[in-house]
Design goal:
By secondary structure, the chain is of the alpha/beta class. It is 42% helix and 14% strand.
């Protein structure tokens, strides 16, 4: 019987011998590789913390002691060791294990997270709460060095230091986040472990102290500690954290399980705020991931022996790749175009722009708020910044969008990837709110393309704007048809819609990804005698007043469809406009979008089908609306009930 099969909870890990701990780490790593090679998922980060995860659960009394993982990219081994090994093959699939930590999934997931740099703040709150309740359990935050480029981490360190409360932060330093780390913090951490003077002096001091007779006891141990700390302070490593009030321990070799157990056992007995610096290798134990940790951050199903992806290749490219190539073409046309991303150069395909124009590409690290305001500063100098960030991550820069960009009417283009339902990454990564939060910003142009060619046309139009912010969104999906070179794509006139099909019954005002689904629905409905108008509302703000007036003149029933939160979304925005329009009297507007609930992880297509955001769902709502008299109940659920 494999050792991993005997480990049902961390209590079982705490009963293992040192040799058994090594065996467990090996089996857990093999299990992780085997499952992710079959089902896909985040890969390299968890391999890098295999030994650390085993050591943490061996030393600390989880779940009484709280371990807070940052983002959850590194928590797959943690899931395997905390009673979820049998369920592990279901990870990221609909109804299966979540891709990130979730409090409602396991008592061992102390805090849910999918965005970086939250662990120290959350764990600090738990430590303070523990003290207010008069308890004495340990609280440990595990944060990657990539997240140390985010200001939230330093806000938490600044708040926690100099308090005297017992609190442990483990800095998992693998010199990688999702992409290679950038900035001064990365250079600082690297210098801490490569400084030859520091390493030589510290090694010589330790050798000298080891020759002192052990019979001298605690006095020598205390003296040794003080000398070691002094060496650290003189030669820079740990100085920043110690100035923030944390006792610095490390660097510790993150794949030396015995050293980790010994270090963490000692740290557990220490008092006050402690920061343990652990050095790991992302992708450890899988040669392909060790050689290219950037590529192997996440993986589709692959062959374990060759590393090759499974399944047929080819097909149409993803929106992100089309965007990256189009951005390069824009850069060739206009030397003032620059690209900004926040630690997501590969995920947004801005790495293509980086290769073409390295001096005009800026990866600010996991610092979305800074990236937005940095773009605003560039715009004041006549530069044309394109900020390429996932929709869900741009939420972190919202104050900058309002205060630094829009209030000053600066021409910054926000290119939002993963808008709408993100699929297997689940609710932390769904781009559910960007339409809603962009519509509320005065002066913001809000757009959504129906396909890849229109995405590039809107991007080009946004870059040409001389005043005011401009946003464009696209899904985590493949483009529906091939996309020509940008020079071959017709111009899109600012603020215009497209009437793609004219009918006499319900008018469907569709946004972005829902346009082609609405056309499919209209084809089906036409066979049933329901002639439906379909409008491509590629500009959500400003509205096309001419087309809207024609729609209001010819229809009494409108259905808006958007792959975004229905609460305060485009449908609500349009309803207000129709109510105030001279031709709006007697016109009923119904909204179909992502419902007021969290959309879970799973396949993108199956999730959209579940919430009626596909051709079948749109057709069902049009049928129901076509049978409803104007003034009848307004929610989609009520419409369907009335139709029955």
């Amino acid at each position: 019987m494999a050792l991993l099969d005997r480990v049902k909870t961390p209590k079982d890990i705490r009963a293992l011998s040192r040799q058994e701990l090594h065996d467990l780490a090996r089996e857990a790593r093999e299990r992780h590789i085997d499952v992710v090679s079959r089902v896909g998922g985040h890969f390299g980060a968890s391999l890098g913390v295999t030994e650390l995860t085993v050591a943490l659960h061996h030393v600390f009394d989880t779940p009484r002691d709280k371990i807070v993982w940052d983002t959850g990219h590194q928590a797959y081994i943690h899931k395997i060791l905390t009673g979820r090994n049998d369920q592990f093959p279901s990870i990221r699939q609909k109804g299966g294990l979540a891709p990130f930590c979730r409090r409602d999934e396991s008592e061992y997931d102390a805090f849910g997270a999918g965005h970086a740099a939250t662990s120290i703040s959350a764990a600090w709150g738990m430590a303070v709460g523990r003290d207010l309740r008069g308890e004495d359990n340990s609280v440990i935050a595990v944060i990657g060095d990539g997240a140390m480029g985010c200001g939230l981490a330093y806000e938490a360190l600044n708040n926690a230091g100099h308090t005297g409360r017992n609190f442990i932060v483990i800095l998992n330093d693998n010199e990688m986040s999702i992409a290679p780390n950038v900035g001064a913090m990365n250079k600082y951490l690297t210098s801490m472990i490569t400084n030859p003077v520091y390493n030589r002096v510290r090694r010589e001091v330790k050798d000298l102290l080891h020759r002192v007779p052990s019979s001298l006891g605690d006095a020598v141990e205390h003296f040794a500690y003080k000398v070691d700390e002094s060496v650290k302070n003189i030669f820079m490593p740990g100085m920043l954290f110690q100035e923030l009030g944390f006792r610095y321990v490390g660097p510790v070799e993150g794949h030396d399980l015995d050293a980790l157990v010994d270090t963490l056992s000692g740290v557990r007995r220490m008092r006050g705020p402690i920061l343990v610096h652990v050095l790991t290798q992302k992708g450890k134990g899988f040669s392909f991931a060790e050689e290219d940790p950037f590529k192997w951050h996440a993986a589709k199903p692959f062959d374990k022996d060759s590393g090759n992806a499974k399944g047929a290749g080819g097909g149409l490219p993803r929106y992100q790749k089309v965007f990256g190539e189009g951005l390069v073409q824009l850069g060739q046309m206009d030397p003032n175009v620059v690209a900004i991303t926040a630690g997501m150069r590969d995920g947004t395909s801005t790495d293509l722009f980086e290769k073409a124009f390295p001096d005009r590409f800026f990866d600010v690290g996991i610092a979305e708020g800074h990236g937005v305001t940095f773009a605003a500063g560039l715009a004041t100098e006549g530069i044309k910044p394109v900020v390429a960030v996932y929709s869900t991550f741009l939420q972190r820069g919202y104050d900058g969008i309002i205060h630094d960009v829009a209030l000053q009417n600066l021409p910054v283009v926000f290119a939002m990837d993963r808008a709408g339902v993100a699929g297997a990454d689940g609710p932390t990564h769904n781009g559910t709110f960007d339409i809603n939060y962009m519509l509320t910003v005065p002066g913001m142009t809000v757009t959504a393309p129906k396909d890849g060619a229109e995405m590039l046309a809107l991007l080009r139009l946004g870059v040409k704007q001389e005043e005011g912010p401009f946003s464009v969104r696209w899904p985590r999906d493949s483009v529906p048809e091939p996309v020509p070179h940008l020079s071959e794509i017709p111009e899109v006139e600012f603020g215009t819609w497209e009437v793609l099909r004219e009918g006499s019954s319900v008018a469907v005002l569709a946004v972005g990804t829902m346009v082609l689904e609405a056309l499919k629905a209209a084809e089906v409905l036409a066979g049933e005698g329901i002639e439906t108008t379909v409008v491509n509302c590629r500009f959500l703000k400003p509205l096309d007043e001419a087309v809207l007036g024609k729609v209001l003149q010819d229809h009494t029933k409108i259905l808006t469809v958007e792959e975004s939160a229905v609460v305060n979304g485009f449908g609500a925005f349009l309803s207000r406009e129709v109510e105030q329009h001279p031709l709006g009297r007697g016109v009923s507007v119904r909204a179909l979008g992502i419902p007021d609930k969290w959309v879970e992880h799973g396949g993108r297509a199956e999730l959209l089908r579940e919430i009626d955001l596909d051709a079948q769902g749109i057709a069902e709502h049009v049928r129901a609306l076509a049978k409803v008299k104007v003034g009848a109940p307004s929610s989609p659920a009520q419409i369907m009930e009335t139709a029955r």
